[in-house]
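Usage example:
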Amino acid sequence: MTKNLLFAVFLFISCTLFSQADWKKHKISCPVCEQNNKLFFPSTVNAAFGKESHYQYVIFPYNDYRSVFSCKNCRFSVLMEDFIKMDSVVVEKLKKINYAGYGVGKYRNYSQINITERLMMAELTYKELNKDQEFWCMFYRICGFHFMKEGYEFDAREYYQKALNIAIELLHNRFYGEGREKEFMFIMGAMYNQLDEADSAYKYIREANLRNYAGNSSIDENPASKERFLTHILGQFSAHLRKQKVERMKNK
Ligand SMILES: [Zn+2]
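Running the assembly step on the lines above writes:
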């Protein structure tokens, strides 16, 4: 999971053309019930994924409502890259998930089910898939981003808080945190910003900006690219927070 996401990050770095992603339908069979589904895949990487998702550290394609797949037959729902063949033991476990109450009604395509509903279904799926805390930190950021965008502020704030708590835990975990302080401090600053805790947001974004991303050899294939990526976003984010601070002072 993480490696694939990092791959998206590297694409971002190497992409010079800021174009809109073009999503195309493909017929894919469900890994749980084998039903054929028409699912959207991006045929290009949208590097211009916007400051709104930048500042929540939600990376393309997960800032797009089409990136969470849901089977029209059994309702199996996951982030798009996890809609893949799985071990039969896992499949049996997934068949038992009760998605009742979600995705109700007739729809031609999964994208007609609201993204927030698909994310709630995906959360049920991932609870059965032994995901680590780094995954959950990312998943809750994605949830926070989409719930906020859809106007569910209360739920969004709950997700931001969960992502923040995990980021703090990861920062202090030797396996995850060593060499990656810049990234986890960035996430903390981003989540504090979403939770309207301006001083903490500013503190961690500034602190992250001063760090160098060394990476973790078991996770990072190209820490230099990640360092460039984080520095690029953090520079913009710092300026954004400074501007916010000036605005607040003016309104006092
Ligand atoms: Zn299915």
